[in-house]
Amino acid sequence: MGNKPVKEEVQRKEEILVKVVPPLDKTYVRWLARDLERIHGFTPKNPQAIEPPQHYIEYMRHSGWLDLNLDDPDLAHLFK
Fold it and tell me: One Pfam family from the UniProt entry (predicted)?
């Protein structure tokens, strides 16, 4: 009862993995590039401000995470 020595591999195979990509249609590639640019380059023209719930604002104030006053008249245009 003892540990038996581990048999070493007699032959070591070296595998080379090659990834082959089929040729792509140029029209499809242009359409895909234009579509991705349209999706990722999108910014809303008139984004609406969202005010968090009051209990969350109070939690942020008590934790010191809220350094600005939401009732400040200089910031009122941001919360409309």
Answer: AtTam9
CA distance 28 to 24: 7
CA angle 15, 20, 35 (to 5 degrees): 140
CA distance 61 to 52: 13
Instruction: Report CA 72 to chain centroid distance, whole Å.
Output: 33
Q: What is the pLDDT, as a whole number, of residue 71?
A: 81
Report mean pLDDT in 10-residue bins for the chain, 80 residues.
63 70 79 84 74 82 76 80
- Joined tokens for residue 50: 């969202």
Give the span between the Cα atoms of 25 and 31, in whole angstroms: 10
**Which residues in 35-67 are b (16+ Cβ under 10 Å) and which e?**
eeeeeeeeeeeeeeeeeeeeeeeeeeeeeeeee
